[in-house]
Design a protein that fits this description.
Length: 569
């Protein structure tokens, strides 16, 4: 049986299913006479919950870093929130009901409000509310928490949902992967699965109930599927795929401290994309020669309010120091589209990906933009910083962005605060109009970085989030490849270096072509760096160059895919 879900974290796991039961306690309404005592019992449970959470924060911080532990800090804040706790106390005292009932009903009401919002991020917060409420109910009922951290045998966890607390306790030696009925790629459990590096398939739906304890499962996180009790042939195929993956990864270690250089001495840079200061270490340990994209919006998304100049300064400084002089491209805020900030409401838009986002928002909200630019400029003294503007669609926007940067420089000079005046400024080329006029843009930037994730969606009119049209979202699209060549050529004509930080940069089948087009820097998820370097070291630049005119003549993605397959090693 094959069950389909959402691919939330890649990799393959083979193991026995461990079904995590939902909380099977029943909450019944009880009338309480001594409601003051009941309220005291509730408050004691809250205090115990805080101690538990503080412990979880400490272990998460140790295992997964500060950013992930913020999830539990938010839970702790909820227990400190007089409105949340007060509403439950009032219910106990006014309605004279038991604490469990008051807690369950109040938190459900609140969670339903969040769930009804038309915003993925806010909807996911309903899970946080339920997580906190279930923790306190368990304390009230004296039920030992299900401790995923205590799992002794290797397994694949199957459950309706995994709370962030559950996921944070995962020991990857025992929990080989997990699948859940609900949840999507923006849920915290998905974020944590990716950072621990175990496969996860989420949003499986009711089909998940077909899985029984101890069923043998293949969890294919790459394709978002679960194969239940596979036949021998399928099992053996997957086993050999896993062995190949392990062997392959072992062999790649030797490339860690090497240069990314072809057999005929064309040197390029293989860098990593990061979303937090913590990811910087992961980038280095995976052999990245720099950071080709720091998506700073995650810094904003992990806060309850806009991060201050000071907070941003220390995050950027930390990354720059960790990278010890290697280039670090930090992209200014790219919020909007699918990435929203709960504390910065943006009016509902019919086409958010074509709407008020990224540089457009920043040029409109100079207060937000300037705080970030000042923090970046101040951090520029601590390493090799390059500033990058996202979603540039015309020359005017680039000039305006640079003018705001100059304004910030002027302010810092007046305040006698040091910064690197020569800090490089570049843009993401991810909108077709920017690619088309890349000849004029090239004259006014220090570098380009091609954002293929968006460039593909805008060039081919395929929403990158819509699974119904995902068959049209194609790395091998001749139109996109022509635009990429145009951008590289135009950048080089002006002597500017051209990188790529979209997912395409790590695509092994396309690396020879991109190398042949002259791409200078390939930036990708840290786990792909060594594989890309190994590929590059096995290629001849002069041979790769010959691929380009041939590919430019081909009219369909399939022809290009086929041609590259037959003409590269
Ligand atoms: C891109 O669009 O290619 C890109 C790297 O940016 P993001 O995926 O953050 O939109
Ligand atoms: Mg983009």
């Amino acid at each position: 049986m094959v069950i389909k879900g959402i691919s939330a974290s890649s990799g393959i796991a083979i193991g026995k299913a461990l079904i995590l039961k939902e909380d099977d306690y029943e909450i019944v309404k009880k009338d309480v006479v001594e409601c003051e005592c009941e309220n005291e019992r509730f408050k004691e449970a809250i205090e115990k919950g805080k101690v538990q959470l503080q412990n979880t924060i400490n272990t998460t911080m140790e295992k997964l870093g500060e950013e992930k532990s913020k999830i539990f800090e938010a839970h702790l804040l909820m227990l400190d929130d007089p409105e949340f706790v007060g509403a439950i106390s009032s219910k106990i005292l006014l309605e004279k009901v038991n604490a469990e009932y008051a807690l369950k009903t109040t938190s459900e009401e609140l969670a339903s409000i969040f769930e009804a919002l038309d915003n993925d991020y806010m909807r996911e917060r309903a899970a946080d509310i339920r997580d906190v409420a279930s923790r306190i109910i368990r304390i009230l009922k004296g039920i030992e928490s299900v401790c995923i951290g205590d799992i002794k045998e290797e397994c694949i966890i199957i459950s309706k949902d995994l709370t962030p607390s559950d996921t944070a306790q995962i020991d990857k030696e025992k929990v080989l992967g997990f699948a859940t009925e609900i949840g999507g790629i923006t849920s915290h459990s998905a974020i944590i699965a990716r950072s621990i590096g175990i496969p996860a398939v989420l949003g499986v739906g009711k089909e998940i109930n077909h899985i029984k304890d101890n069923d043998l499962l293949i969890l294919d996180g790459d394709n978002g599927i679960i194969i239940v009790n596979p036949d021998d042939k399928t099992l053996n195929n997957y086993k050999s795929k896993m062995l190949n993956d392990i062997e392959f990864k072992k062999n790649l270690i030797k490339f860690k401290d090497m240069e990314s250089i072809t057999l005929d001495n064309r040197k390029v840079e293989v860098a990593a994309n990061i979303g937090s200061a913590k990811d910087a270490l992961n980038a280095i340990s995976n052999g990245a020669e720099g950071v080709g994209l720091f998506r700073t919006e995650f810094l904003y998304m992990s806060k309850e309010e806009l991060p201050s100049e000071e907070e941003q300064f220390s995050a950027y400084k930390e990354v720059l120091e960790k990278l010890e002089g290697k280039p670090v491209i930090i992209r200014t805020l790219d919020i909007g589209g699918d990435k929203k900030l709960p504390y910065l409401p943006i009016e509902e838009e019919l086409n958010p990906f074509l709407g008020y986002r990224a540089i457009r928002l920043c040029l409109d909200r100079k207060d937000i933009f300037k705080t970030q630019l000042r923090a970046l400029l101040r951090a520029s003294l601590y390493g090799n910083l390059k500033i990058m503007f996202p979603m540039i669609s015309n020359l005017k926007e680039l000039r305006e962005g640079k003018a705001v940067l100059e304004e910030c420089k002027g302010e810092l000079r007046k305040e006698k605060i040091d910064f690197n005046d020569k800090v490089q400024v570049g843009i993401m080329v991810e909108i077709p109009s920017a690619a088309v006029i890349s000849d004029v843009l090239a004259k006014e930037v220090d570098f380009f970085s091609i954002g293929t994730n968006d460039l593909i969606q805008y060039t081919t009119a395929v929403d990158r989030m819509n699974e119904k049209v995902s068959y049209l979202y194609d790395f091998f699209s001749p139109a996109v490849l022509r635009l990429i060549k145009t951008v590289i050529d135009n950048g080089h004509k002006e002597g500017k270096y051209v990188g790529m930080c979209g997912e395409m940069a790590g695509n092994i089948e396309l690396i020879p072509l991109l190398l042949g087009m002259g791409l200078d820097e390939f930036s990708m998820s840290a786990s792909s760096v060594l594989r890309a370097r190994a590929t590059i070291k096995n290629l001849k630049y002069e041979e790769c160059k010959k691929l380009v005119p041939k590919v430019m003549e081909l009219g369909t993605s399939d022809e290009i895919r086929e041609f590259l397959k037959n003409n590269t090693k």
